[in-house]
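Worked Example 4.2. Read the sequence first, then its structure tokens.
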Amino acid sequence: MSDASGGEAGADRVDSAAGAGSAEPELHASPPAGLAPSPGLAPSPGILPPKITPPPGLVRSPFEGTVLGGAAAAVPPFGTAQAQPPQQQQAQVQSQAQAESQAQAQLQALAQQQHQQPQVQQQKPTRRPTPTPTSAPDPSPPPVPPDTVRSPAPPRAARPRGAGKAGSGLSRGAIIGVVAGIGSVGLLLFALIAGFSSTNAPAPTAEPEASESSADTVERFLTALSEGDAGTAARLTGSTEDDPVLGDEVLARSLELAPITDIEVERTGDDASYSHTVRASFRIGEQRVSRSFSVWPTSDGWELDDALIALPLFSLEGLGIEINGVESEVTYPMVFPGAYEIGVRNDAFEVSSEGEPLAPVTVASQDDLEPLYSVDAQLTEEATETFRDLVRSSLEECLASTSLSTPCGFDVSEPLDDGAIPVEGTAHRALAAEGERALGELAPEPDTAQPGRVTTYDYIYVHTSIEAVRDGETISGTLYSSGEMLQPYVDFSRDSPVVTWE
């Protein structure tokens, strides 16, 4: 018996060894005695959403019938437990944790940038219902506090042997949770940014009052001028009321010289444009004026941009410019349309244009300034006689000196052409007939380098005689040339003008 069994066993091993070299052996499983054969594995149900138990009073899942990603897949009703592999569960939890971590970091960075802005209270996420399977006992852990967000625990159902691997992607429930979390974070970020933008946005520019049109403003400006209301007229041009040239005194004198009458303003309805012009006509004395006024809107209404005229009086600098008797501190004083007397505070001078005293000037716009570009300050007739007298007196004193060099010029100290050396203290000078006439007709000219000073470019002829030594011999005679005369300057800005020779 034992030999026979051993022989059969040896034969089996030989056969197995022989078969191993040709093909892999097949495994067969037979059910234990008393059990029916295995019916096989059911088809995979696919990716299903997480099971959520509705809160009390809610009989229908909020996700039933929801279309996700464009696919009209109906969500199974509540009560059907769906098993999820541990890998899917872990991936879902990690995705949600990563999304929440990124959102929290963005919120912290934004909060640091807006530390001076009112803090926005974040809403706490609502608690997700815990799924309650109907066909298997609930293996989920104990309930968590209400403010804690957690994913539903999968049922501990054993995976049948031989079943295929589940898909590696997230389940529909995981996608819904991630999308909802990102959406909530996005809304919160939008609220924070919107609050920051609205807090720091600049205030809108105020529009002019709708009760008065731009034409009304121009008419009100001209009416104020005609009535002597300098304060209202100045405000409508955006000027300050502390400028004395734009005060009531100057305007009152202007109206005495040339009243403003016959005011007419065109009304074209151009107020819809931001900046435009309004045409008007009026009279300044006997002169009819027609011009446009540029207007633009401000918070207080329309404002005239070019109603004032700058008078070019730079040639009068340093003399104390006066407009209608009021002193101006600038050489380009701004004035209203009107008539003006231009003068200077120094009584020794008068304002002239092309050699003639300047008459009152009527200006309505910048086009009327031509006469002012040639104005200058000339000595009055009285001051001119004073100038001539001062120069004569100083020159006569200078010519009385016997020195070879004098304060007024006429230097004859250099050797003569024949080598003769002039002898100091022997010079005698006297006015020539031409020089006498020149002194009586000296033409004073303003010193452009120093306001208030006056000089002359007229030459005064003088005869000079001296003694000189030539080859040890003293000779004398009248010189052919008496030398150059220095220029006389008289400073009329001083209380007591004197002559200086330069």
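Now turn to a second chain, presented in exactly the same format:
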Amino acid sequence: MDIIELAREAGLQVLLDARIGTVTYHSVAGSLTALQRFADAVEAATRERPPRLHDVVGRRARLPHRIPCKVIGRRPRPARPHSNAASPRGRAT
């Protein structure tokens, strides 16, 4: 679905504001009836396209970004003791 083309077909005025590198910035202006036609066109276009796997499955079915160490079988790192007595800053003069 090309949203810029849908806006033009609905009667909205699409203006090119800037092009910085590969990113293009547009402004859209028009009447409320043109905005309603655009909303109807977007709704019709989303009804016609098949649902994506992401929409059907949802976010909860995906694996977590981090797998806990217990699942992988690694041992967690032991905590290092930190003593300020050994450092020169920790001693009173």
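Notes for the reader: The chain is about 35% helix and 15% strand. The chain has a mean pLDDT of 77.
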